[in-house]
Amino acid sequence: MYKKILMPVENSPYDDAIVDHVRELAKVCNSSIVLIHVADGWAARNISQLKLRESEEMKTDRDYIEKLSGTLEADGLDAEALLASGDPASEIAEAAAREGCDLIAMGTHGHKGIADLVHGSVSNTVRHSSTVPVLLVRGSSRGRSGPRK
Fold first, then answer.
1. For the chain, how long is the longest CA-to-CA vector?
2. Which of 12, 57, 63, 126 is most buried (most C-beta within 10 Å)?
3. Helices 88-98 and 122-129, axial angle in degrees (round to 10)
4. Mind listing the pLDDT tens digit of every residue in the chain (149 residues)?
5. What is the DSSP-derived secondary structure letter of residue 36?
């Protein structure tokens, strides 16, 4: 059904729900997984224009997605990790098209209404800007083992 699934992660406990869901979906569909984290701090948004080096945050994010990719591969899945920078919604939609993904599966925080206006909603923007179907799975701030530090 799905050959290649793009899974945006944010390096937070909210990732646990989507990772668990996509792991099982990929096994059933024999899909490959493309993990993406979009670093959106000041350094990340300006890295190309100002020819900056990766910030410590970006290095931590790269380590996180590479470790997560390795965990999925240890489970017998085909996974790769991408670190992007800039506007998360745009980068996710562009990566889905560029990587030939036929599903974007992402976790949500479960905000509604006013909270989306305050916090923003990457998932909403991706849903409206991508031609690839988007699967949303509500995460939890506790994840499996409580909040990450």
1. 44
2. 126
3. 40
4. 899 999 999 888 889 999 999 999 999 999 999 999 998 755 555 555 545 456 677 788 899 999 999 999 999 999 999 999 888 888 999 999 999 999 999 988 754 544 443 344 566 556 555 678 888 888 877 765 444 43
5. E
What is the amino acid identity at position 46? Answer: N
Within its chain, how far is the Cα of 17 from the centroid? 12
Judge whether 136 and 106 are in contact, CB under 8 Å: yes
Residue 1 corresponds to which tokens in the numbers above? 């059904």
Map tokens 């646990």 to a residue: 16
In the chain, the domains with their CATH numbers are: 4-138 (3.40.50.620)
The pair of three-digit structure tokens given for residue 44, joined into one six-digit string: 């990340």
